[in-house]
Amino acid sequence: MPEITAALVKELREKTxxxxxxxxxxxxxxxxxxxxxxxWLRKKGLSAAAKKSGRVAAEGLIAVAAKGNKxxxxxxxxxxxxxxxxxxxxxxxLEAVKIALQTGADAEALKTKACTGGTVQDALTTLIATIxxxxxxxxxxxxxxxxxxxxxxxxxxxxxDLGKIGVLVALQSxxxxxxxxxLGKQIAMHVAAARPEALAITDVDPKALQRERDIIxxxxxxxxxxxxxxxxxxxxxxxxxxxxxxxxEQVYVVDGETRMAEVIEKAGKSFGKxxxxxxxxxxxxxxxxxKTQDDFAAEVAKMAS
Length: 305
Known about the structure:
Order of helices and strands: HHHEEHHHEEHEEEEHHHHEH
Largest sheet: 4 strands, antiparallel
Number of helices: 12
Distance between the termini: 34 Å
Helix content: 40-55%
Structural class: alpha+beta
CATH superfamily of the domain at 59-168: Elongation factor Ts, dimerisation domain
Shape: flat
CATH class of the domain at 59-168: Alpha Beta
Strand content: 15-25%
């Protein structure tokens, strides 16, 4: 069995809010697998915040750009938040996202395209040498529609089209573009706040759904109720799960009562033209990247010796 370190227990506590001994037991039960330990605690009802996001591990900027019926979004990472406020770094991020409008959702292809100072990668290399921090174009998103608009939104903005959270929302419609832009901006703000994982129920990741169903079933069984009641409990909780992660099933954050699907339908009637929410993309700076936890005291002691 792998060693259950204090650092691993600490990380599980931060993810779940569970007690130290419960975290240690969970890790022991699943041979040190962190994600399995989260599930174990949820099944036992010991996790206080099972869906708490991991710590943001990277700094930098999310940049957005739109042209016609297409929009792109790029995440450019750096080591410190200080760099995100650097004018040269911001200028690079904006140039990169505008070029991405022509290259599609491919970060590696973007790096090979021409820009000020050679290719995008050349410009990034020069920036690294100038500022003195490691940087990277991590990912690129792009949405387009045959008719309609793709709205953009940046939350925690440091400058126009630059910030910590970026959202794209594609609306397919022949309605007036200005009205669609206003609707798209409102939906994008909802997406930034509500963090949906899928557009429609059919888009939900089957593995994520099965994982959630297993956890719910395990919790329901612990109630001791009959199988037919347990089945209804699971179905009810799955419907609730859809309302949490599916954009069209979520309650609109602006009014707190209308489903997003109804918001779109009502907007179409108001515009006199049907509106379809064709897609969305949401980037939060550094999500999913693990930051190395340095032991500063140990590092100083090592230098001293």
